[in-house]
Amino acid sequence: MLRDLILKNRSYRRFYQSERIAETQLRDWVDLARNSASARNAQPLKYFLSTGEPLNASIFEFLGWAGYLTDWPGPEEGERPSAYIVMLRDTSIPGNYLCDDGIATQSILLGATEAGFGGCIIHAVNRSKLHELLKLPENLEIVQVLALGKPKETVVLDVIKNGEIKYWRDENQVHHVPKRTLDEIIVKIPD
Ligand SMILES: Cc1cc2nc3c(=O)[nH]c(=O)nc-3n(C[C@H](O)[C@H](O)[C@H](O)COP(=O)(O)O)c2cc1C
């Protein structure tokens, strides 16, 4: 069911790094994005795929992980993503891409989740360094990076208490993500 898939589709940041993801699999997930909605149907998003070392290790250097977990520098060797999809915007295709990036990202992550994998959207990217590493042409701007792998962590959804939106980890290293209640986000005309 779609609801189960969406609930399972959490941001995972620790993986079984040795579980590889084939490039054909990444292509299947990008194909879900390709078939998703696009403002003016301009389709300005492009994708760079990385499925192995040493490129994965080089990409990892330019990513920022879990800003709220201030004493955690990111996944250690052995728990790092086994693949990356670098989402790019082709600036030679005119117009504003509005929310194409979010729709494409969700399509890719739902595909990965359905296949038993998981990932994390990484917006904290050293774009200039990554652009240089991947030898990208000028017209391809980095939008964000999707880090992917076989999840090695448990993520649970909680209800927000006292307005606290920060995710946190408990003593068993379970990752907790507070979500606002449905009643809080559905707006009604006051009595
Ligand atoms: C646009 C966007 C940018 C994000 N950037 C980062 C990031 O740079 N690093 C990171 O560790 N997580 C990043 N995340 C993941 C969020 O922290 C995560 O979605 C949030 O904590 C809620 O957890 P959930 O995805 O499991 O619901 C990003 C998420 C979104 C939607």
In the CATH hierarchy, the architecture of the largest domain is: 3-Layer(aba) Sandwich
Strand order of the largest sheet: 1-2-4-3
Q: Report the span from N to C terminus.
A: 36 Å
Number of helices: 6
Radius of gyration: 18 Å
CATH topology of the largest domain: NADH Oxidase
The distinct ligands, each listed once, are:
flavin mononucleotide
Number of domains: 2
SSE pattern, N- to C-terminal: HHEHEHEHEEEEH
What topology does this entry show?
Layout: H1 2-8, H2 23-34, E1 45-50, H3 55-60, E2 83-90, H4 100-114, E3 118-122, H5 127-133, E4 140-149, E5 155-159, E6 168-169, E7 175-179, H6 182-185
Parallel strand pairs: 5-7
Antiparallel strand pairs: 1-2, 2-4, 3-4, 6-7
Helix pairs in contact: 2-4
The site of flavin mononucleotide has 14 residues, from strand 3.
Features:
191 residues, alpha+beta, NADH Oxidase, putative fmn-dependent nitroreductase like fold, four-stranded antiparallel beta sheet, three-stranded mixed beta sheet, 6 helices, 7 strands, 21% strand, globular, binds flavin mononucleotide
Written description of the protein model:
- By secondary structure, this protein is of the alpha+beta class.
- The chain has two domains: 2-153, NADH Oxidase (3-Layer(aba) Sandwich), CATH 3.40.109.10; 154-191, Single Sheet (putative fmn-dependent nitroreductase like fold), CATH 2.20.180.10.
- It has six helices and seven strands.
- The chain is globular, with a radius of gyration of 18 Å.
- The model has no long low-confidence stretch (mean pLDDT 98).
- The site of flavin mononucleotide has 14 residues, from strand 3.
